[in-house]
Amino acid sequence: MNTRYVLIIMSGLMLAPGEIGVSVWAQYPVPKPQPAPPLQLPSPPGLDAYNIRPQPAPGQYVQPASARQPISPPPAALPSPMPIGEPVPVPPGIPQPSQELTVEMLESIARMENPSIARAASLVEAAKGNWVQVGLAPNPTTGYEGQQLGSGGRAEQQGVYVEQELVRGGKLRINREIAAQEIGRANQELTAQLQRVTTDVRILFFQALIAQQQERLTNQLAANASQNLTASENLLKQKEVGKLDVLQARLEVRNVQILVVNARNRRAAAWQGLTTVVGRPHWQMQNLVGDLDSVPQHTWHQSLERLLGSSPEIAIAMTNIERARWQAERARIEKTPNITVRGMVNVIDNGINGDPDGTVAIGLPLPIWNRNQGALVQAQHQAAAAERALEQLELSLQNRLAPVFERYSNALNQVKEYRENILPAAQESLDLSRQLYQAGEAGFLNLLTAQRTYSQTNLAYLDALRDLRTAGAEIEGLLLSNSLQAGGP
Questions:
Q1: pLDDT of residue 54
Q2: Rounded CA separation 211/217 (Å)
Q3: Which terminus of the chain has fewer Cβ atoms in its 10 Å neighbourhood, N or C?
Q4: What is the DSSP string of 382-421?
Q5: 159 phi/psi in degrees, rounded to 5
Q6: Is residue 329 within 8 Å of 181, Cβ to Cβ?
Q7: Backbone φ, ψ for residue 23 (5° rounding)
Q8: Structural domains of the chain, with CATH
Q9: What is this structure's pTM?
Q10: To the nearest whole number, what is the mean pLDDT of the chain?
Q11: By the 8 A CB rule, do 317 and 386 touch?
């Protein structure tokens, strides 16, 4: 068998990587990695490894400790939707709700049933799938080729060929590095979403708990108003008070009934908001148990330092910087041409008496006009923009913290003032008015004024306590809230 080997050289010009530079962008240097090692395609990270930390791109950059902290494992699969009105099954491991619920119980249920957490966990798995895909080499191409088929059998050539593109310059490895940063970003998004859900549960829990206390207080005020009305009517029969006192007592009963209805509606609304974030919107109302006496203590400098050092938003911005740097490196090596190798076996070659022969072709594009210089400039600017975005985010977080801390400071001062001065004074005024009224030394209007002051101060105290708990939860939650709105489709 006579075999011919034909070598087709499509390019004799080879450009070494890094020969072409764009000096005008020297003010935004992009670090160049070391020469790529032989390409290896390891298996993707495990499905439960939510603490993936890809290797950083070359350059002086260190992620904060918060960005390297492992996060909670992915939530279990959500139960299938249930028709409205039917009870929602409780997943294994979650205690059945009793007559009293704590904030810890609700946080545990929310981590299992809030759909936004499952959505963020699915995006992590999607990023892992992308990591696998972008590092795969191109598939080979095979086919049939026939030449000079109309020569009447005198010069026909028929054969089978195989063609393979060889990716050079470590492009697949850098694709994986970029995808690894996307996994890191998805992990931090999951961490942020977990924090948003936790913050929302805490805020709405204390709002519902305080609304529950307000309802109890207004019911107590209504009972006292009814007792005062009965007492004034009895005194009127004994001609010890006038009709005006009875009318004032009746008006007070009506006014307090308005407060009772408002408090009941406020508690129902707070409960609906809480159960929605927990993931059980059709849950029947339960009693809540929590500590309203403990006051969260925060200082501005400690809160700001913790926010800038532990916020998942900061970690996401840092991951974006690393991703942009790897994209800039990917744009730099794009000009390194890939090689296409093709081998063909002519089963029939009538030009040489029909004996089989073969051909080999090796080709690569010449990077003469297009050296990917525009994409390189774009990637360099995007890397610089990502760094500025981190600085912008740090200022934005400080700006967002300022009004929250103001609300916290104001509410803390109000709660302290109510506890130490106003509430004791209101209680003392009410007790003294009752004693004077029973002794006949004060009129009913004086007692009514003292009761109104007592009720107003207690309701205002609960409002201040609600504001304090809300602002404190936002500070402790790194300003991450609104879990049902964040990261939506």
A1: 37
A2: 10
A3: C
A4: HHHHHHHHHHHHHHHHHHHHHHHHHHHHHHHHHHHHIIII
A5: -160, 180
A6: no
A7: -70, -20
A8: 108-477 (1.20.1600.10)
A9: 0.75
A10: 81
A11: yes
